[in-house]
Amino acid sequence: MRGVIFRGLEELVVEAIGMQAWDELLEAHAPEGRVYVSPTSYPDAELFALAQGVADKLNKPLTDVLAIFGQSLFGFLAEKHKGISSKFASFEELVLSIDSVIHMEVKKLYDEPNLPSISAIVKDDKTIVLEYCSNRKLCFCAEGLLYGAAQFYSRKLTIEHPQCMHSGAEHCVLILHLD
Ligand code: HEM
Q1: Residues 119, 173: Cα–Cα separation, whole Å
Q2: How far is the centre of ligand 1, averaged over its atoms, from the C-alpha of 115 (Å)?
Q3: Which residues line ligand 1 (CB under 6 A)?
Q4: Residue 40 neighbours by CB under 8 Å, 6+ apart
Q5: Which residue minimizes the CA distance to atom 1 of ligand 1?
Q6: Residue 142, φ and ψ in degrees, nearest 5
Q7: To test the ligand 1 pocket, which listed residue (1, 98, 155) has its Cβ within 8 A of the most ligand atoms?
Q8: Inter-axis angle of helices 62-80 and 44-58, to 10 degrees?
């Protein structure tokens, strides 16, 4: 996973529980002297170990931590890549463009990024059905990113997750309900 994602996690942890907590997590779960550089790739296992470390510190399930992380990550990525995130006039427009525009732009900026496959279709004016597929199975993080995007556009969102890769499905189905 790219350094930019680790930096997003660092920002959240430092804001929520402080720099010392982040240093302790690094000491426990990353090689000595690790500094995350945005365009560089680091092992996925390291990100999962850090996220699990946060879950242990907060006594919360990993899935909750990934969702909270995803939510704050959206703001972090949108701020860092304003040129990409400012292209969309609405939440719906953004969600329908994750694969075809957002992650396509990411492919131009980062050498061979490892991205999920996300497709979205509008079911009616309040419902979008999204399919998520990735060997990383970060669907809870995807949910968080979507909540972060809804917050960005001041929209009220609830997500149903009736089909999940963690239960053996080929891809996750996320049903987005908007107010
Ligand atoms: C609601 C909108 C978005 C969703 C649902 C989403 C979903 C995800 C997910 C779940 C991952 C983790 C990788 C995986 O699952 O295999 C990911 C990776 C990533 N996304 Fe997005 N994303 C969104 C918006 C954005 C935006 C706005 C940017 C930046 C402009 C961005 C840039 C990236 C980058 C750089 C990675 C890491 C690629 C790598 O490690 O090689 N995403 N995205």
Answers
A1: 10
A2: 7
A3: 1-2, 4-5, 74, 77-78, 81, 84-85, 98, 102-103, 106, 110, 113-116, 118, 134, 136, 138, 141-142, 145-146, 149
A4: 2, 3
A5: 146
A6: -60, -45
A7: 98
A8: 120
- Of how many residues is the chain composed? 179
Global confidence as pTM: 0.96
Q: Which amino acid belongs to residue 38? A: S
CB 29, CB 50: distance < 8 Å: yes
- Measured from the Cα of 116, ligand 1's closest atom is 16
Token pair listed for 77: 């990525």
* pLDDT digits 0-9 by tens, 45-92: 999 999 999 999 999 999 999 999 999 999 999 999 999 999 999 999
The neighbour count for residue 84, using CB atoms within 10 Å, is 20
Can you tell me which residue has the tokens 């993080």?
141
N- to C-terminal Cα distance for the chain?
34
Q: Between the CA of residue 177 and those of 46, 65, 147, what are the distances in Å?
A: 33, 22, 11
Give the mean pLDDT of the chain: 97
Q: What is the rounded average pLDDT of the residues 105-123?
A: 96
To which residue do tokens 């997003």 refer?
8
